[in-house]
Backbone:
DNA sequence: CACGGCGCCTGAAACATTTCAAACACTCGA
DNA sequence: TCGAGTGTTTGAAATGTTTCAGGCGCCGTG
């Protein structure tokens, strides 16, 4: 219960009547110290309330025992599930996980990257605002392993993502199977690779089926949020009933939830008047008033795999970047099934 | 672009032809070094790609530039909004924020606390699994400022929370105003102080109004999750219509969303057949199919205040623990308003 | 008895930074 | 020309840990 600065190895050594090195050995290679001594040291540590100073250890070791994840958007539960997966893997490797949130702002992201480099983290996982940002390349150039999550930059970095083209395809395939002939694809901004690819998958399937291209409408949004989903719903309602899509594929679940809410609010029946498919399959999708059909990403697996990749890169002397691609899966629920 | 270990102050000094101390001064007190030298040093830093080693700085300084937040449940958006508030305050103080997630498990919480102590964080903010846990006291005993968020432990720690008794009161007051005469209070486990206090507030108001106590039913749940909300809904449906509550006050929004979903799914009209009030006012509450009336906690403010409190405790030589209490506010939406 | 080997422990060096007293080089005024 | 003062730079010490070569004492073997 000593006040003042917290006790150091030196204090413990003095209290136990041994040298610094012995105390260190008790902590790091207990097998080389005799049981009697070990016991004495351990007692001293407990008594003084010794807590190892991680900075000093790190300084000496040259590297930290920490991984970092820079999230794109803390308000999207999807990223928390990914984080959960990362944390599991980090725990297995006995590493701590530092979670940051860029809130989709490039300046915050850069700030976080900078701090993390100063901390000498072992590796970084990131869903970047822009996969081409020079900041990412900076990190890599310094030899810090970096893995993109839910984004891809072939050749440049390792990455873990889902096959978005396939995701778009199965979403629309499901809607066509349910008999829909006019479908809206909702998402944006178009600068997002994911949005482009999911749309592409949708279009591929559509043209393979020989369906008229003008019956697959792309409705761009400014962001992937609930609010934007609502506003897309209003735009949708403005289309004359004859030409209005009977189904919508949203590029993520937040958009889909917004759309769902707006549609119900204006008296539409789901799925009879409007069927909705989301993407990500976040927990709230299943819990929505009309449970949401969604294209599931294996969220936790994504995180786990990313963490393993970053550890692999950290361990290997020589390393070749890899792009891991997971297969998305359609989870059909009431928002597309009429009976 | 040197490979091998990353450049140190020494390397920069050599490159710029100055001493270690000068390089350090350029970083920490630029005003004392002549513009010419400063320029030379800065050029050398850029050229070598120098990144300050935070471990060494910390070791020397004796304290880190980091705050930590140990979240109780990463899947509840409420805590993310709190985290956001904390981060804002941390940014103002030029500190990094370390976010951990205990997932409501005491062992994970203890592990995190331990690691954070080893990191010598400046202070901790935590929504603990159990406010009475000896681990928390351990931290405090070591002189690390610690502030409870959304929990209270008078005398022991500083804390920031909302007046839960008042929150329960206004929720039920609102329902009574809407003409309801039989109300269910849903939440649990009862070991949660919050649940007890929100229930107490509800009962206080109920008895003040002279309403029959048996018409205010407490329905305990095993946890505060969407799934538990659904199951509470099923239990509610099992009550004979004559005696069934016409309104429910849920101890958080996740429960309320689960209940809402179950109720809609079984054909009830909200709010005509069942009115629902949640607690927390998370973002998804407003976005629910029937927008949810909720007792708003000033989530971001909570986080901000907690961070300020912890910084205050860190700065002050002498400190007396304080319990900050915020006032909750009812946000009425469609789930309780019939027109 | 001498000696190698073994088990256990010690002490010093190294890690990258900050701080601070002291040194240094000028300039100005007396 | 000297001294004081000012502005800038230096070098060494200190932070807490880990590692590693070496030392000490003891046992068993030759």
Residues:
């Amino acid at each position: 219960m000593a006040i003042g600065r917290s006790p150091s190895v030196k204090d413990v050594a003095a209290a136990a009547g041994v040298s610094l090195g012995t105390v260190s050995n008790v902590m790091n290679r207990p097998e080389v110290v005799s049981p009697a001594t070990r016991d004495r040291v351990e007692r001293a540590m407990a008594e003084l309330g010794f807590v190892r100073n991680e900075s000093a250890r790190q300084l000496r070791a040259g590297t930290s025992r920490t991984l970092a994840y820079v999230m794109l958007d803390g308000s999207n539960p999807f990223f928390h599930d990914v984080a959960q997966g990362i944390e599991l893997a980090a725990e297995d490797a006995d590493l701590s996980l530092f979670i940051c949130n860029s809130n989709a702002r490039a300046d915050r992201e850069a700030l976080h990257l900078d701090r993390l480099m100063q901390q000498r983290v072992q590796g970084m996982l990131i869903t970047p605002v822009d996969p081409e940002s020079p900041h990412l390349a900076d990190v890599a150039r310094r030899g810090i392993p970096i893995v993109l999550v839910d984004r891809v930059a072939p050749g440049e970095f390792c990455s873990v993502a889902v096959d978005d083209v396939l995701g778009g395809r199965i979403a629309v395939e499901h809607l066509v199977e349910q008999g829909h002939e006019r479908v809206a694809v909702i998402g944006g901004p178009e600068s997002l690779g994911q949005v482009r690819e999911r749309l592409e998958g949708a279009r591929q399937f559509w043209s393979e089926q020989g369906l008229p291209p003008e019956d697959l409408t792309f409705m761009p949004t400014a962001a992937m949020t609930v609010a934007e989903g609502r506003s897309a719903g209003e735009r949708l309602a403005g289309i004359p009933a004859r030409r209005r899509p009977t189904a919508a594929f949203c590029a993520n679940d937040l958009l889909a939830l917004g759309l769902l809410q707006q549609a119900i609010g204006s008296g539409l029946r789901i799925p009879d008047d409007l069927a909705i498919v989301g993407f990500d399959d976040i927990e709230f999708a299943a819990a929505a008033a009309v449970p949401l059909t969604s294209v599931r990403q294996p969220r936790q697996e994504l995180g786990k795999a990313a963490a393993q990749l970053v550890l692999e890169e950290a361990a290997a002397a020589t390393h070749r970047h890899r792009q891991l691609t997971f297969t998305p899966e359609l989870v059909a629920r009431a928002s597309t099934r009429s009976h």
